[in-house]
Predict the structure.
Amino acid sequence: MRKTNPDDLWGKATEDLPQVNWTRAITVLVTVVVLIIVLGVIWTGFYTVESSERGVVRRFGKVVREAEPGLHFKLPWPIEAVNTPKVTEVKRIEIGFRTIPKATPAQYRAVPEEALMLTGDTNIVDLDMIVQYQISNARDYLFNVHSVPAAVKDAAEAAIRQVVGNSGIDEILTIGKEQAAHEVQTITQEIVDRYGCGVRITAVQLQDVYPPDQVRAAFDAVNSAREQKNQMINEAEAYKERIVPEARGQAEKLILEAEAYREERVAQSKGDAERFLALLTEYQKAPEVTRERLYLETMEKILPGMKKFVVEKDEGALLKLLPLQQEGGRP
């Protein structure tokens, strides 16, 4: 029996297999790889920035540029990557309370460790506050601070405690709320700018400011008394505004009347003086005639309505001048 050689069997088997075109196979493989790369570049290279966003492009982790809204191109991942934070969105932080999600109607949960604060006159108030902010610098917002919302919250909480600690309880409960909110906004903005958070504080709203439940009744009584005080002050101010112009008008009237009386008396005095001087001149010219005229005028004034006769001394008795009549009315 003839013995079979294994090499002969292998050679015969390879002769039966089809011959492979290695050049064509390599070409197809390269083409597939190139297509995959091109599709990857297209898929990861183009990106869109919405109108409410700002694009921040990173190359191997380093920020190289910012992109305005629109369609842009970047090198494919992992060479370049892009972040698109919403710069026009108004973000909100609650201090002293939390809104319960998906509650209808809206419900809130108190956070006493944030709400209770000590005033400058060593009183305790319960204060709820809302802080609103927007992104002002997208690069700083993304990479300067690990958690910007937490930083803004801590800054606002520190600011409100500082403002309340410098104010009295009466001020913070009543007329000082708006001023306190403005000061908190200013201080918070200074803190986040110092940290480089890249945000702008747009509003600070003090929602509720009231004393703790244990002493609320006493504070309500004080507030009621304060309101009555303010009401009385306002009524007094209104009375003053009404009575003062009237008093000024009366004073002006009296002054005008006095001035008119003065002018009248001065004019009358001047007239009397001029009349006396004219009379003196006439008297100096004819003393006896003037004296007699003055006497007659005086008698006319002191005896008005009476029939009077002027009799010369040499005319004899006055009996002939008397209106003697007989009984019956006949002479």
Notes: The first strand starts at residue 46 and ends at 49. The two ends are 221 Å apart (CA to CA).
